[in-house]
Amino acid sequence: MARIMIVDDSLIVRMNLKKILINSGHEVVAEASNGEEACLKYEECKPDVVTLDITMPKMDGIEALSKICEEDRDASIIMISALGQELKILEALDKGAKHYIVKPFKESDVLNKIDTVLKAAV
Amino acid sequence: MNNTIVKEPTEEIIGNLTIEIPSVLSTDTSKTLYDLFESMPGLEGVVVLEGGYPLGLIMRNLFFQKMAEQFGFSIYMNRPVTLLFDTSPMIMDYYTEISKVGIAAMNRPKNNLYDFILVSKDDVYIGAVSIRLFLIELSRKSDEKLKILNLQHENLKKANEQEIELRKTVDENNKVIQLKSASVKNLLDHAGQGFLSFGDNYIIEDEYSFECINIIGKKLDDVCYLDLVTELFPAENAAVQKLTLKSYFNSQSEIKDDAYLHLLPRECQIGHQTIRFDYKRIEFFGEKKIMVILTDITEKVVMERHLDEEGRNQRLVVKALTSTDEFKRTIEELYDFFKTDAYYIIQNSTTASDALNEIFRCVHTFKGDFAQFGLHNSSKKLHIIEDNLQLMLNSGGELGKETIKSMVEQIDSARITAEDTMVISNILGEDFLQESKKITISEDNIREIQLSVIRTCGQRQCAEILPSVNKLRFKNIKVLMDQSKDYVEYIAERLSKTVPQFIVTGEDIWIEKDKYSKVFKSMVHLFRNMCDHGIEMSDERLAAGKDEVGTITCHIEEDSYHNIVIKISDDGRGIDAAIIKEKALEKGLLTKEQLDRLSEKEIIQIIFMQGFSTKSDVSTLSGRGVGMTAVKEAIMHMNGHMEMETVFGEGTSYIITIPKI
User: Fold this and answer.
1) Contact A12 B243 (CB under 8 A)
2) B166 in a domain, yes or no?
3) Cα–Cα distances in Å, from B569 out to B123, B133, B405, B481, B505?
């Protein structure tokens, strides 16, 4: 099971994700509500997987992604996006994100994506 | 021609393509199967064996399709695999000729077109043939033959005397190849789906299937897929698609290929038809390609749209019932946002575009939250607002705060949520959304919901939804308490404090939630107080030699008089009796003489006296009493009582005792 960091400015989304992850045996090692915080906490915790929201205050997900990937090329990052953000997702994938999830998400979707990314990281 | 086949009989029979595939027993659960598929990503299917005899077949695609159905995972996971398998897979004899197998496989229903063919030899099961491998094998053979042809062509030039003989062979070989390609193409043409593929030059390859012409309405010979995209999809979508395809072909990782393919649109309206687009990563002689599978789903969409609407409304109601507090809070926050917060943002931002950006971000977050709650209509409306804001942001022109303000003024938050709240009001009653502190759902209402679920949902959905509706009546106190965890998190965030640990321990006691709802609702005051005043800021805690993160513990047990005892404790700073004494005196609640007679424990109880604390207090004790009387009243109403214990510097506990009814 993986050590996961959740980054999202919505508390509700974080809570939902956390519930899903913990119920399936993953460990949520850190949470952040903006990109800046995410970069700091990534350094600190070195999580196995990061779920990263795209639209956030202070520093958005794309910028945080670039910063994290600069430090750690193999970072396993899954973008969390809303409907209609295809272009942003594409940018994120090109910049090093491993996969993406669209809100509203289903439990199985989240877990499948995390498994896929984890498998690839081994 | 017959000669060739007789000469090399072993090359042309299905037996040579047979592979061994993993098997499961009919008594195994879907979990076993799931693990098997997960551990072998290349595994296309599994045979179900009983005593060496094949009972049936389960293909990966179908399996995961079932799992992906609503509640599929929970329904099938612990049940036997026999629920899912195909009981009449195609079984072929070991010695059947490959070309015959092609025709037989082609005649299968389109859903099973790519299923394994099981192979038996002398009536004993020996393995399976993968259609995928079968197709690859066919094309490999054709390729080999082509090479031979070329060689033979050379020979022709060199050896004139053999010319006539050889020409004969070439012709024969040619015929065989044509026959075989025809059988593959037939296979695809009759699938009722269109298949086409292209590589990084985007030119659609010649072997596209006949059905493509029906679906798209023209021949696709030498057509560039990008042009097709331009033709079929809206401009903006087409542009993203082209970029995505480019990234796909540049990508070096298979997982990312998958992610890119996911980004491509799933559906397209062509004329009056709705066409589903599925994309598959294929590799052809080491070259990466995309196979596009087109399926006409027009009828399915019309039917599903209706069912979807019903299903979504049901989910919305269940969500509203199961996470009532967060649900209402989100709606209320949206109202507040457009009533006050948005104006505050406009006023306090340095520039107009800063304000617009911030409002955009908030709307976006609301959109996500609403979607998560199943408020799909509201979410859609917010999406439109978001689009408009995006347009304003992109227009680049000089924006005044006044423009933004008038734009916000035009937004009617009641209209955003109107459709969804109507659905909720219709089922749960008008009061549900209006009264923000208490919920009252009568038994009748619950029964009505259950009936309407049974009426409109399938058996599987019922199995999932009904228990959660039932749960509304009886709840484990531990679960009820645990729900406050979200509230504590919420409050702590609002107060910019580190979220304290929240631990629930003790016995499992089941109660009818409705009867205790007032007490449980009032407990929010306790938690608010603990977060606000009990638990110190991180630096203060560290200085006091405590853990940086505070802890709130709820312990539940039943005493010997069948009372429920709930002890809620924090490890915060506790209450200083001396300060309370001072306050009580100051407020004239008690005289000095009266106070001197009280023990320290009794003095602490003054907190619950009406009028001890008012909102205007801004000292360290401010607000500590706010809401405390409400808690006490709710408990006394149930014939229960509450005590408070506090150790200055170490923490506070509230012990609530209520009779079990």
Assistant:
1) no
2) no
3) 72, 65, 46, 13, 12
For residue A92, name the pLDDT band (cuts at 50, 70, 90). Answer: very high
Q: Does the residue B380 lie in any domain?
A: yes
Cα distances from B375 to residues B327, B362, B559, in angstroms, run 10, 17, 43
Q: Shortest Cα distance from A51 to chain B (angstroms)?
A: 15
- Domain residues for the domain of B28 are 2-132
Q: What is the per-residue pLDDT for B83?
A: 78
| CB contact (8 A) between residue B253 and residue A120 | yes
Secondary structure of residue B223 in the 3-state scheme: coil
Residue B280 located in a structural domain: yes
CATH number at residue B33: 3.10.580.10
Residue B428's domain is classified under what CATH number? 1.20.120
Helices A11-23 & A107-121, crossing angle to 10 degrees? 70
Q: Worst-scoring range by mean pLDDT, B149-163, B370-384, B557-571, B577-591?
A: B149-163
Question: Between B134 and B439, where is the model more confident?
Answer: B134
Omega of the bond prior to B80 within 30 degrees of 0, cis?
no
Q: Do B526 and B646 reside in the same domain of the chain?
A: yes
Lookup: tokens for A27? 């460990």
Shared-domain flag, residues B517 and B631: yes
A121: closest CA of chain B, how far (Å): 10
CB-CB under 8 Å, A108 with B73:
yes
B533/B397 same-domain check: no
- Whether B414 and B330 map to the same domain: the answer is yes
Q: Return the HEC string of A47-65.
A: CCEEEEECCCCCCCHHHHH
The sheet carrying B45-50 orders its strands as: B23-25, B45-50, B53-59
Does residue B490 share a domain with residue B386?
no
Among residues B83, B111, B132, the one where a domain terminates is B132
In this prediction the ipTM stands at: 0.80
- Tell me which architecture the domain covering A3-111 has in CATH: 3-Layer(aba) Sandwich (3.40)
> Which of chain A's residues have a Cβ under 8 Å away from the Cβ of B368?
10, 13, 82, 103-104
B332 and chain A: CB distance < 8 Å anywhere? Answer: no
Pairwise pLDDT comparison (B495 vs A75), residue with the higher score: A75
Identify whether residues B368 and B509 lie together within a single domain. Answer: no
Q: What's the pLDDT tens digit per position in B50-87?
A: 877 888 888 887 788 777 777 777 777 788 887 777 77
Task: Give one DSSP letter per residue of B293-330, joined into a string.
Answer: EEEE-HHHHHHHHHHHHHHHHHHHHHHHHHTHHHHHHH
pLDDT category at B248 given cuts 50, 70, 90 is very high
Shared-domain flag, residues B237 and B349? no
- The total number of structural domains that make up chain B: 4
Give the model's pLDDT for residue B169: 61
- Same domain for B333 and B421, yes or no, is yes
* Separation CA B531–CA B493 (nearest Å): 10
What is the C-alpha separation between B148 and B142, in angstroms, rounded?
10
Contacts of B562 (CB under 8 A, 6+ apart): B659, B660
What's the token pair of residue B553? 């513990």
CA atoms within 13 A on the CB side of B261: 19
Mind listing the pLDDT tens digit for each residue in B513-554? Answer: 777 877 887 787 788 788 888 888 888 888 888 888 899 999
Question: Any chain B CB within 8 A of the CB of A76?
Answer: no
- Distance, in Å, from the CA atom of B390 to the CA atom of B192, rounded to the nearest integer, reads 42
Cα–Cα distance for residue pair B328/B490, rounded to 1 Å: 14
B271 φ/ψ angles, rounded to the nearest 5 degrees: 60, -125
Reported as a pLDDT band with limits 50, 70 and 90, residue A96 is very high
Whole-angstrom distance, CA of residue B243 vs CA of residue B236: 11
Domain membership flag for residue B78: yes
